[in-house]
Design brief:
The complex is a heterodimer. Chain A is built from 12 helices and no strands. Chain A is mostly helical. In chain A, helix 4 runs antiparallel to helix 8 and helix 8 crosses helix 10. Among the domains of chain B are: 85 residues, no CATH class; 132 residues, no CATH class; 71 residues, no CATH class; 75 residues, no CATH class; 90 residues; 162 residues; 136 residues. Chain B is elongated, with a radius of gyration of 71 Å. At the A-B interface, helix 4 and helix 9 of A face helix 49 and helix 52 of B.
Amino acid sequence: MDFESITEQDRLNFSALLLLSYFPEAKLDSVFGLDSENEEQRYKVEKLLKLYNIGSSSELRIIVHNYQAGDYANASIYQIAEELRDYNEEQFIDFLSEIESPPKLNKYKLIYPQRFYITDKTLLGYNYSLSSLFIRLAGVMGYMTAEEIHLRHIDLAKKVAKQFDTWAAFHQNVLLGHQLFAYSLEATPSIYPQHNNLWSNLLHIQASYPEWFKKSV
Amino acid sequence: MATIIHCDSCSCQQPKDYEVGDLCVECGGSVRVDVRCGWCTELTPATGNFCKHCGSKSIEEQYFGAARILKSLGFSQEEIPLKIAALPEAKLQQYQDEFYRHYRVIQYAKDQLLSLSSTLYMPIGQAIMLVEKELLPKIPFKDSELANYEQLIKRPINLTTCLEVSESLHPIIPFLAEVVKMKEIPFASSHHLDIRMHWANQLRVSDFPIVQTEVLLCLAHPNTYHQNLDWTETFELIEKLLMGKDVVDYYTNLLSAANTIPHLQPYVAHVLYRLRLHFTKENEQETKRLHEVVNAQGMHRDKAFALANAMLLGQEAIISQISTQKIPEAYIAYYHLLYFVEPAIAKRSLTRATLSVFQLNALLDFTETYDEQYVHENNGELPEYEEAVHLGAALLLEKFQSNFIYDKPINKIPEADWLRYARFIGRFSETQKHEDYQPFIDALIQLEKQSVLNVLLTHQPNGLKFNDALEQQLYKFTNEFDNTDTGFAKIASWEPMIQQEYWPSLKTVLKIIEFLKANYTSFSGGTLQETQKQAVQEALLKLINSPQKSAMYVSRFLVSLSLENSGKEETWLSNQALKNRIFSNSYNVGDNFSDTAKSRTFAADDEFIKHFFGGDWYLFIQKLHQALSVAQGYGTTSYDLIALWIDRSPTYLAQQYQENPAWASETLTILLESIIVLKQGEELLGLQTEEGNYPLLEVLATKEWGYQEAYLFTQRPPNLPVSITYKLYKSLTRWLSVDVVEKLNTELYKEFLTDSLQFSTSAYLPDCMLPLWFEYGNTLRYKEYVTQAFQKIFNVLLADINARKLPVVLTANGVKQLSGIEVLNSVFPDTLSCLNWLADTAEIQTITEPLNKFMIFVLHDMGKDILPYVKTAEHTTTYSAFSEEQFLARNQQIIFDFIEKMMFTAKELSGGEQEIYLRLLLDITVACHNDNHAVDVLSILSNMGDLYDETNERYEALLSVTLPEKETYCWSDFHIAYSCIEDYYYSFRQKERWVGDFLISFTPKVIEFFNSTDSYPKQLTFAINKLVETLTKENDFDDVPYELKATFRTITSHLKDILTKVNPEQFDKEEIAILYKDIQDKYEQGASFGFVSIRSAVEEIFLYHFPEIDEEDDELDEEYQTVEAYEENQTTAEIPTGNVLSAEEITGLLTSFRVDEDYIKLIQNHLEDYKTTQLDNPMLLSPLTMRMEEVKAWLTSNPVASMDFYQKLYMLVLDPETAPDAKFPSLGAMARMVFVQLTQDTVYAAAYASGIQGMLSSGIYSEIFTAVLNDTVNQLNN
């Protein structure tokens, strides 16, 4: 994947899936994704950022820094995956019986099939996508200017390029990460593929920007 | 009476016993007999046959009445004499009787006039004739009229009946009666009229000349001189009435009739003289004559006239003489003497007549009228006047030695006269001894004239001794006290005596007390007159101040009365009256106690208790309790009276309470009821001892509080001293702290306590209340009204936030500056609970809560003491999951969390407030930061700078001051700074300013740290990598924005400093090698300014670690080819393709250029640089032009290389952008020149020329470029 030659729009699309997932009304071709003048959208953004404990620009920068450094999502999942890696199915079932918390149980169940992938590839793609999302939302909140978002995305693109070879690999990582985090709270994790989910969002992206994926293939 | 006999000459009427042949009694002339005509009633001579007026035939006199009756019956003028002749005698007699029945009315009028005649000057006959003449034609009266008249004539004939104008038979009668009245002596005393107006009025209203004459003659009566009246106005009045006629002439005419009567002539002269005196007639002769006439009448037998003359002429001797005579005129005369203050004469006259009854009357009247005026006008200094009246009083007293006063037995003297005598004697007896009064007093006692005695004593005559006999008489009572009304009247009648300090005996006083006691409760004063009530009160008031022994009895009675009093206002002695009249005065102790002060006020002191409560204070307090429990009506209760006593000397009772706390407690219990239910007794709370203690409040403060006590607290007196106020608030706080939610809803709180809990400044807020706020100020745990109520109370603490320190509050020892540690110690039982509170607050609350604001002040005040305070938190089992260190770290973390939370929420505050609190928070942060929490501190500081631009400058300054203060720095201090460098870069230097500060001013510290043994090479590597990584980004820009340029320069200089100044040993050997290589790579790819400047520094370090390479590659080093030497797998020397050449490199190329393959290749590779750099720089080709021949030779010898080179150059020449009118004209010109020179005279020239020709023929180039290229083709072809 030739990341040096990708456009600004390509870089913004690091967070396209998540952005559409959280904000169906988002415009993928705008830098911020959402309208900073729109009170309603601003409120939604604020609400989402609060979920991630972001109250100020400084907090946001720290979070972005940490996500890009591979902490948080990636680190915790990677740890679990490494733990599960050596278990065969019987051992895994025994292991599950000791876990009481349903969200945790779901998470383990979701991670178990992916354990080899995660230990090999990590979830950094998901982390990068999230950090991209935060950077763009920071623009909506007025924490960052378009120039800063541009600079950060340039550097982010380099990191992505270092980790992934193709767009497909990147998006696979993002989807997996989103699944593990967003749907570990569902009663039955298996509901995920049938739902109005990132897969459909992915289709949406394909329809709008076909040339974007052509590059990755 | 049809026959009237007149004198022919003088018209004088003749007496009844006139007989024919008698001469006139007046003038001696012949007399004519007239009879009344039976028809017209006019007088006609008796001797004629026919009436001279109407011509009727004369009728015999005896049948006059019958004729009048017949006329009334309708007989004609002619018929009547015939009828009389025809009628039988009996019938005539019947008519005659009928006539006389009516004539009686006329007779009554005539009698009235006759009764007045004795006091009139003029003869009455004229008036009588007038009356008869006018009344006779009216006979016979109508029956109703006659009946009415018959009623009238039954009345006795006297002046009063004559005066009745409405009922009199003829108008002249009252007129004349008025004249008579004017002459009465004394005039003023009987009618109280101004004689002048009376006189003028009579003169005006009467139409009868006789009356007017009579009135005028009154001017000769002494009454008109009485009291020295000024007649000027009156005379002016009558002058006006005459409408411009001459007064004297007019009245002289009027008086001419009187003047014809000889004995009246002097009177007329007197009147005329008087008028002339006033109107100043010019005829002096006549005046002189009149004066002589008047002067000659000094000894006129009419004493009244004589007196009038004397008064007109001012003959005092005559007046004095008349005053001594026993005639009524003596009254006027003596009065006159007194009036003109001729005391010597008056005195003499008095002595001579030994006070005749007229003199006495004059004296009495005079003194009654003028005494006050005289004394007032002359300030009481009238020795002669006084002497005269004193003599009169003495003479009067002497009269009482006999049983007859002026021939009247003393028991027949009317009450009014007694009173006048007593008043006169009382007022004017001065020099008398007691014995002189004795006969008078004896007479009074004998006749039991108590009221007269009262009057006498009211004036306190000198010399009169008040003895027992007098007392007995004065205060004599029989059975009056059996009846309420009479009893009160009796006491009221004694009141003036008591006022004059004629003290009643003890027996009497006891009787009075007994009576009052019996009548107090049963009797309501409704029927009592107000004056009587007043009199009784005054009497009692006087009695308690008497020096007698009885005074104490009365006082005690009143005190006991007041204690039993139910407060009824309608009683004769209301509490109101007691309070206002009696107890507001003093009482006399008398001889009952051996006190030094005989007179004391009603004040509850020790003496008072001794006098009225047997010295038993407890008894008094019990009475107070009783009084307190009686509800207050509309009037004054007995409590009001007790309060009055207490109010006068509060310290005594307070002292008793102080010594006997049990009593105080008892009283307080009573007060709880009385203040709350009856609203009375609040003032007792303010009882203060001399030392300034409040015994009742002290007891209140120590009690267990309920709602009642809290209410009592609200009723406390104002301006209490600090100590007691504080105690009370402490108790209140204790009470409030339980069930506060419930209590806030009570009426008690809303109506009363809110006032007590509103403090105008924080200096009034007791510090003991602070825990309440911390407990109930929590908006999440308690409802809004609870928190708001407390917020209202404590808002005053945040009144002056500009001071930036804790407010002053009220403590047990007075007003004091609050300190943070005190607040925490008083509010929280231990540090742990404080931390828990802070943690809770930080989690859910914001800075908008006033309590949190206050907490910021508290923490700010503690400053550096916060950390020691936090350390004292005990590590309990609750947190046993932590180690001791973790526990402490967590505690400190709580503080930072709190600060951070407050800071984030500070944006909700208004501008001014925000700044203040942020600065406070900054101060706290700085004060309690330590090594372990540098991250938190920096995070907070960065957040602050991030959030609030206004504080940026301040915080930067603060940071630069704060951080260098540390003696040593640990890695964590720097780690976060290096971590944030990326942000610094991304935000175009807008955010994370402190990183910039760090990079600039902390460089020495950083170097010192890295040079120290505390640091590890890994840390240094991290720092350098971060810096380099950021610097790398400079390459990403085609044109670096200005802001970022500065950022890069800052980072570069920082990095350069580290690299040059840190000991090379500190660097990790492998890492530096990688870095060195990296930098070399970058340099070769066209490094940015940053790398160029650090390159040598890195190289030095690298050579320090790899000296052997340094030696080997000395030459290469010179030529900047070290990279190739280091890389072992490096193949042939290959000039790297890639980035464009920089301007410096191009310049360097110019000097170092050699004609060999390397350089030709280098130039060849960079021929297309202009597409990247967009620079029109022909310098790249300059080396070729300088050594053109050599190059050409070299190219000729190397055909393969020359082919490539020519091709590249050819493409450059053909590029439309190198046209003279395009972007790179210079480069294009240079390229074309070089291309022509190199290919000229070679085998390729023709080929290239035709190629260019082909391109030109395609028509894609502009005209100018076509022309230029045509030139090139021409040159090639040449």
